[in-house]
């Protein structure tokens, strides 16, 4: 599981930085979080294939988080996509997309399943490979964060032991899921004789655009990797409050409070050409911080 | 007067080429024609300043011609624009823009004057520096081409003659506009004694997305520079008809028939990585052809 940053800037593209978009790869699938203008170009540039993309999450309806969506949806259609796509977004996006298709006298060539984000938190998707939940953050308009949990690949097999007990390979998947084995002679081989605990599930939390607030702390506690916006350096904490955004110090404090493994920061204001001070300020509070770089993939 | 190409590809961005956008510079002002996704990034890249941009023309409502517009409008607002902007576009764009602003709970910081394109041809703008007209072309949905005419800077003064007849410099502007001069003693100095014809007005015609059709020929006759789309090489003339587009050969035939000075072609299908064949095919019919390159400015 990893996160590739496609856009790490706030609303104004600047210094080669683009508005928000992230591609989360989990068990071979891509989940796109937000889709600022030029996301399809960034996906091409960084080798993110739409054929592996089946879920798009839109945090809120400020343009820098979705103006790239209509173009991406159209382009996949033109490129022959037929596989269904699941879109999770605030309710008012649907009529906008409908009007855009209608005035173009066009239809997508694939089924687009629209899932409206609820007011509060919810499970959006739950399948054998991963689940996606959403939770409210605090912004000028309704805005959600997301947690993506990679499901464990199951218990770890002790292959020597499996051979020793003559367990056929066709039963290995059941072993991984914790089942005991019944031999032909009736002997029961307890699962814990031939397996160990598998690796723990990995979790990535994305905090979208938000004012620093402990209201969303319970949803991001102990995740392996947290993305928290850091639009401003801390000297502009007043601007952050005014515009419902966060600073370096606030992002780092939140990471510490939530006891996360690592921290990504982004959504940088276009007032900053250089980002060195972001690393210094956040790192002083939470050493496991990464000032995101477009095109870079971060392991969860 | 010149035209800078910001996007020369058709709907799918490919090989570093972007969807349609062109910046026409005329007497110091910028007129933006179409605004595909990433136009604001392309403007930054090629030094097109929004402070000189007061008119945006949208030919039709296929996304590759306007998906960059909401982002550009927002960005100018965030950057402190207060000067009014004139937008000429098909009627159904306005409710889309309204909804986008409404769901973001935002307003532009500057007046946006929306001018709905008519069904047929019309004068859209007429000021001392230039005028803009529109005319219908033939596409799957309503689509317009545009002609931008740079007004002549007036008659050319013969400075030696002006001195000889003792005409004060304060009257030079009237001379340029063709007026005779009345001296204090009642003598009339005929304008043509002290001036020559000025340079002719320059005209640029943009043919948007269109099927080859002589219906729009009258509107583009004798222009100095014609942009005509050429989505396909001529071997794909059947595809061009099916999708209401044109080929190299058709663009060049139209340029010849219309007796234009020079021809720009663009809106290339993403099926073509290399564009050499476009130059060869169109150039065989109309030698004054330029296969457009993004970032390049073409003199009208």
UniProtKB/TrEMBL annotation, chains A, B:
The active site is at residue 64. Keywords: Endonuclease, Hydrolase, Metal-binding, Nuclease, tRNA processing, Zinc. Its cofactor is Zn(2+). Homodimer. NCBIfam families: PRK00055.1-3, RNase_Z. Belongs to the RNase Z family. This is Ribonuclease Z. It comes from Flavipsychrobacter stenotrophus. The gene is rnz.
């Amino acid at each position: 599981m990893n996160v590739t940053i496609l856009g790490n800037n706030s609303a104004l593209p600047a210094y080669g930085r683009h508005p928000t978009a992230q591609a989360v790869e989990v068990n071979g699938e891509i989940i796109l979080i937000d889709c600022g203008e030029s996301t399809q170009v960034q996906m091409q540039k960084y080798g993110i294939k739409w054929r592996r993309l089946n879920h798009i999450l839109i945090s809120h309806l400020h343009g820098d988080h979705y103006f790239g969506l209509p173009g991406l949806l159209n382009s996949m259609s033109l490129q022959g996509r037929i596989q269904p796509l699941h879109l999770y977004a605030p309710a008012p996006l649907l009529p906008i997309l409908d009007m855009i298709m209608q005035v173009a006298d066009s239809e997508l060539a694939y089924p687009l399943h629209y899932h409206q984000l609820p007011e509060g938190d919810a499970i959006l998707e739950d399948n054998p490979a991963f689940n996606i939940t959403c939770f409210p953050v605090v912004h000028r308009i309704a805005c959600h964060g997301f947690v993506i949990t990679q499901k464990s690949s199951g218990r770890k097999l002790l292959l020597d032991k499996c051979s020793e007990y003559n367990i056929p390979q066709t039963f290995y998947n059941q072993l991984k899921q914790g089942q005991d084995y019944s031999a032909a002679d009736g002997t029961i081989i307890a699962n814990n004789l031939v397996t160990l605990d598998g690796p723990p599930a990995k979790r990535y939390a994305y905090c979208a655009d938000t004012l620093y607030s402990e209201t969303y702390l319970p949803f991001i506690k102990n995740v392996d990797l947290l993305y928290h916006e850091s639009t401003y350096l801390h000297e502009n904490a007043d601007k952050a409050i005014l515009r419902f955004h966060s600073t370096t110090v606030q992002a780092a404090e939140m990471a510490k409070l939530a006891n996360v493994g690592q921290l990504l920061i982004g959504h940088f204001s276009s007032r900053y050409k250089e980002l060195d001070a972001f690393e210094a300020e956040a790192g002083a509070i939470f050493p496991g911080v990464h000032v995101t770089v477009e095109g870079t993939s971060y392991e969860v």
